[in-house]
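Final report, closing paragraph on structural work. Over the funding period we assembled a curated collection of sequence-structure pairs, and we close with a single example.
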Amino acid sequence: MHHYTLSLFSQVQSNGGCRSLRSFIIFTIFLILFLCYILAYESSQTWMSTVGLYLPETANWTEISAKPWKPPEPYYVAYPYNYTFIMNEPEKCQKENAFVVLMIPVAPSNVAARDAIRSTWGSERLVGDKIVSVLFLLGLPTSQDSEKLQEDLLQESEKYHDILQSDFWDSYYNLTIKTMVMLEWLSAHCQNTSYAMKVDADIFLNVENLVTMLLSAPKQNYMTGLVARGAWVLRNPLSKWYLPKKVYAPARYPPYALGLGYVFSLDLTGKIVEAAQLVKPVYIEDVFVGLCMKHLGIALTDPPDGSLFNVFPVNYNRCRYSKLIATTTRNLRDQIQFWRDLQTPGPYC
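Its predicted structure, as stored:
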C-alpha cells in the first residue's frame, strides 16, 4: 500500500496530468477513511470495555484502567446487561434461613466501612427468633492498585463470606447498575427470605427496630423508607443530581424511597427486574427504582413514623437513637461510638 502511494505520486510529478492528480487525491481520501475505520474500531472496543458492555472472560487486573470511570456520554447507564458475579455467596439466605437480608453497596477500597459495620450493627444477626443476614455489594475496582486490591478482596471474602462482587465498574455513575444487580441476586437466591433492605455504608442502623417494624409489615408489594413525593427534577447542570429534559422530560419524579436505606418484600425483586427491562434507566438509582414501581402500578408505603428514616445526620442521644431505624452519620467514628453507647446497660430515655 505504501509502495503504491509512492508510484502514484511519481506519476503525478512526471505527467502533471489532471487525471493522475485526481486519482491520487481519491486514493488518499480512501486511505485516510480506511485508517479512521481501524482507529474507530479499536477505540470502540476500549469504550465497550470501559462502560462494562464488554469484559474478557478472565479479567486481567494489570490492564484495568487506573482512571476513575466516567460515562461515555452524559447520564448513560449500561443496563439491562447480563452482569455476572466474580465473588458470590449463593447459599447465604438459605443456609442462614434469613428473615431479612441487609444489602450494603460499598466501594471495593472501603474496607474501613465494611469492618465498622461488621463490628457494630452488622453483628446483630439474631433479633428475637428472626435471623438477619448481611452482605456487601461491590463492583470492579478502578484505582491504580486494582490488582492488589482484588487480591485483598479475595482474602477478605474467604475470611468473612459476606462479599458479592459483580463485573461492572464500581463508580457513582453506575449505582443504578449496582442496585439492579443486587435485586437480580436477591430474586435468584433469596426466595425463602421475607424482606431485604438496601442500606448505605455510612448509615447507623437500628436493627432491632427494623425487625420490629417488619413483624407487622405486608408480605407482598411492600417498599418503605424515607419516601419522597412530588420531588422536582433538578435541571441545574451544576447539581450532583442533574437530569436534562432529553433524559427525563417530566418536571417531577414519581414517589421513590431515598437511597440511604429502603426496605422491601422479596416478591418485589423479580417484579422490579422485569420492569427495568422496559423503563429507561437513569443514573440516580433510587429514582430509577421509583420509576419501576410506577411502571408496575405499586404504591410505596410510608413508614409507621416519619422520624424512623433520616437523610440528615441526627445528633446523638440514647433516647432518640433507641427509636429510629436509620440515619446518615458524619463519619465512621460516630457510627461506631453511637452503636457502642446504645448497647450499654441502662434506660434509653
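The first helix runs from residue 2 to 15. Confidence is low (pLDDT under 50) at residues 1-18, 37-69. We thank the funder for supporting this effort.
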